[in-house]
Design a protein that fits this description.
It is built from five helices and no strands. The protein is mostly helical. It has a domain of 77 residues. The longest helix has 70 residues. It is elongated. It starts with 5 loop residues before the first helix and ends with a helix. The mean pLDDT is 75.
Length: 159
């Protein structure tokens, strides 16, 4: 017998598992009619049922109804979220339109302002533009710092 490395064996198994394999399952349902001997209670309980019982069906129905209710509540929540989003989109569109209108107004005002300011400066260069510029400037005097000695009052020390 030839010895193989573990890596070679793993490669072979990987190649085998990579190849598609067909698995066929055949199921046969055999329904037998009870004979007169099998009609007694012992054989009836041992007989294998092919259809689900009433209790199993009721639990299945309850599970399906619970799943349906959960799906309906989730659907309702999604619809309300969708409605909220539609409302928000409408508000955003309205605000965007107002913003665009405000931008246009600002551009028009700045354009007219620059035109009017250029006209006033070209018409009269000697006249003051604002009254704030025509006011005299107040001057403040600083204390005499020519002496090298300072008193406590000059420095701001007080005991």
């Amino acid at each position: 017998m030839v010895r193989k490395n573990l890596s070679d064996l793993l490669k072979e198994e990987a190649q085998k598992s990579a190849e598609p394999q067909e698995i066929t399952v055949e199921a046969k349902l055999v329904v037998e009619e009870p004979t007169s001997e099998e009609t007694n209670s012992e054989s009836a309980t041992n007989h294998r049922r092919t259809s689900p019982t009433k209790a199993e069906l009721e639990t299945t129905v309850k599970d399906i109804q619970a799943a349906l209710e959960a799906a309906q509540t989730e659907n309702q929540e999604l619809r309300s979220q969708l409605q909220d989003q539609k409302t928000l989109v409408e508000k955003v569109e309205k605000l965007q339109a107002e913003l665009d209108q405000a931008k246009e107004t600002i551009l028009k005002l700045t354009e007219t302002n620059t035109k009017s300011s250029s006209k006033t400066t070209s018409k009269s260069n000697s006249k003051p533009v604002s009254s704030a510029l025509a006011r005299p400037v107040q001057s403040y005097s600083l204390p005499d710092m020519s002496s090298s000695t300072f008193s406590d009052k000059d420095i701001g020390w007080f005991d």
